[in-house]
Amino acid sequence: MPDGTGLDLLQKEIPERFFDVGIAEQHAVTFAAGLATQGYIPIVAIYSTFLQRAYDQIVHDVALQHLHVVFCLDRGGLVGADGPTHHGVLDIAYLRCIQDMVIMAPKDENELRDLLYTGMQYKKGPVAIRYPRGNGVGVTLKKDFDQIEIGKGEILREGQDVALLAIGNMVYPSIKAAELLATDGISAEVVNMRFIKPIDAALLDNICKRFSYILTIEDHVLHGGFGSAVLECIAEKNYKQLHIKLHGLPDEFIEHGTPAELYSILKLDPPGIASVAKNFFRHTIKHHTIETIA
After folding, report:
1. Of 96, 222, 229, 251, which residue is 20 to 30 A from 195 by alpha carbon distance?
2. In terms of pTM, does the model score above 0.90?
3. In this structure, is the dihedral angle defined by the CA atoms of residues 10, 15, 17 and 23, taken in order, positive or negative?
């Protein structure tokens, strides 16, 4: 689907480096694996929800061979009017368990460019970059590319009361939510985790030592998702008075609706995130607990 993924523009510019295999995801992945064995760096652009069809090929043809294939997962998260068949809300869970897989989620179009560049420089195995449908947030595009250290997140806003750990297109809504929380007297730190695998263990350690309240935010099902990765990372630590809430999609299929409508219903827009964080911070029972929210 060159028009759906935006690759029709690339096809016009460099047709000799573009291959449209049709709606044949399994073939696309094995084809890319073959190219990788010959020293090429193939970029496989497929909708998140349809990459599921090629799961066996990702595991056996790419990951098991430690091949350098870059997967661009278009339509990661909720897609709106295309409906439940097109929501890309399972990719983190089904990719995170694959050995050697690196999973990235950019916060904006500049970071998408940098992570794609980073993924092309990475030589140790497969890389997956998930990003949402539609337009970027509107940041000014820079001319050059920066290589980002694999597995490193960033603190975008410092706070004292609660830490909001976000990935992908949940980062900017979390920043806006932090601004809303500030009007309520709650100081929220916003972290762009950026890498789901490998997750930034050092940054998480820093946050867990400074905060008692941590809210993870993702546009993905909670089971096996980003929040689960955070819990797994810190499970072996003996942090005291640590309260964690996972905020993401419920254990049900999400129907049609505009992205704005769906994110509002699911409390994944700025007011929704702010309300979840506020209730979590002010009403959590004062003992060690791990909670989830649908």
Report:
1. 251
2. yes
3. positive
